[in-house]
């Protein structure tokens, strides 16, 4: 299968490109910069130059492909306005990619987050939240999945709060980055709230499986660790960075504060049973031992 990939040099995207190529697919990957183009070409992908906001380029990429994996997201997390702009840009790109495939029965796999449900781990059957700071992302994903009725094999792979690789990435990575800047490892609330996680290589295998075989209009959970207590995550980061660990106000984390403070475990039981996905990488707490 010839697959058009956006976000192919990110924490998830790099492993996805490698996974696709290793399993006999060819990859056409979007690249905004010379650096990204070089990385993708060295990996073995063909490059299509442009950014996530170049909608004509996205249409052209989808038109040349047997399937699409949409991963690109502008990492503008500093303010609520920046996060909203990044979500709107992603949504516009997702809509264009989906529309380009209408009537073709070709697959498009997009990324979203696992939902949170009070009192239990969320499952693949739970809807994405339509309120809160990332509600716009849920709306875009739902609109894409609705194209299943118009001849698009649209699929969502829901990612946990931390996608990690060599101690980096996701919410845990943001905690570590902030700790390096502030001199302490802060966590919101009492630290007992749980964050799910997955190793990036395991996530990549699920994207490939979903592209190859998942039915139209379905959502799947790329969750290996159902939920680690945030304080346990902070303690490992503090030990590795030799920094103190303590509770801090939610506002410390900007627009992510309300999300960081929530208990949000997630299950992938249905994904494993239905698609045969078997995560094999190290757990988050194991992988954080690589932090330097």
TrEMBL record:
<dbReference type="GO" id="GO:0005737">
    <property type="term" value="C:cytoplasm"/>
</dbReference>
<feature type="domain" description="NAD-dependent epimerase/dehydratase">
    <location>
        <begin position="3"/>
        <end position="215"/>
    </location>
</feature>
<protein>
    <submittedName>
        <fullName>NAD-dependent epimerase/dehydratase family protein</fullName>
    </submittedName>
</protein>
<dbReference type="InterPro" id="IPR051783">
    <property type="entry name" value="NAD(P)-dependent_oxidoreduct"/>
</dbReference>
<dbReference type="InterPro" id="IPR001509">
    <property type="entry name" value="Epimerase_deHydtase"/>
</dbReference>
<dbReference type="Pfam" id="PF01370">
    <property type="entry name" value="Epimerase"/>
</dbReference>
<dbReference type="InterPro" id="IPR036291">
    <property type="entry name" value="NAD(P)-bd_dom_sf"/>
</dbReference>
<dbReference type="GO" id="GO:0004029">
    <property type="term" value="F:aldehyde dehydrogenase (NAD+) activity"/>
</dbReference>
């Amino acid at each position: 299968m010839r697959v058009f990939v956006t976000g192919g040099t990110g924490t998830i995207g790099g492993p996805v490109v490698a996974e696709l190529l290793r399993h006999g697919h060819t990859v056409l990957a979007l690249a905004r910069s010379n650096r990204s183009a070089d990385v993708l070409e060295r990996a073995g992908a063909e490059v299509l130059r442009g950014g996530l906001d170049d909608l004509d380029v996205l249409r052209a990429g989808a038109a040349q492909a047997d399937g699409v994996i949409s991963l690109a997201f502008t990492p503008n997390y500093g303010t609520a306005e920046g996060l909203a702009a990044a979500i709107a840009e992603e949504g516009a790109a997702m809509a264009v990619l989906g529309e380009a495939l209408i009537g073709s029965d070709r697959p498009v796999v997009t990324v979203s987050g696992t939902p949170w449900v009070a009192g239990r781990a969320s499952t693949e059957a739970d809807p994405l939240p339509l309120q809160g700071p990332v509600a716009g992302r849920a709306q875009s994903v739902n609109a894409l999945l609705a194209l299943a009725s118009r001849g698009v094999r649209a699929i969502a792979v829901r990612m946990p709060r931390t996608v990690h690789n060599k101690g980096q990435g996701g919410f845990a990575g943001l905690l570590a980055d902030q700790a390096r800047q502030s001199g302490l490892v802060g966590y919101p609330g009492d630290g007992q709230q749980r964050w799910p996680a997955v190793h990036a290589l395991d996530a990549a295998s699920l994207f490939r499986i979903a592209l190859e075989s998942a039915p139209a209009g379905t959502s799947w959970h790329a969750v290996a660790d159902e939920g680690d207590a945030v304080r346990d995550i902070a303690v490992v980061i503090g030990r590795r960075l030799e920094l103190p660990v303590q509770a801090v106000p939610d506002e410390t984390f900007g627009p992510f504060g309300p999300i960081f403070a929530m208990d949000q475990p997630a299950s992938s039981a249905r994904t494993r049973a239905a698609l045969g996905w078997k995560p094999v990488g190290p757990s988050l707490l194991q992988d954080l031992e690589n932090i330097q």
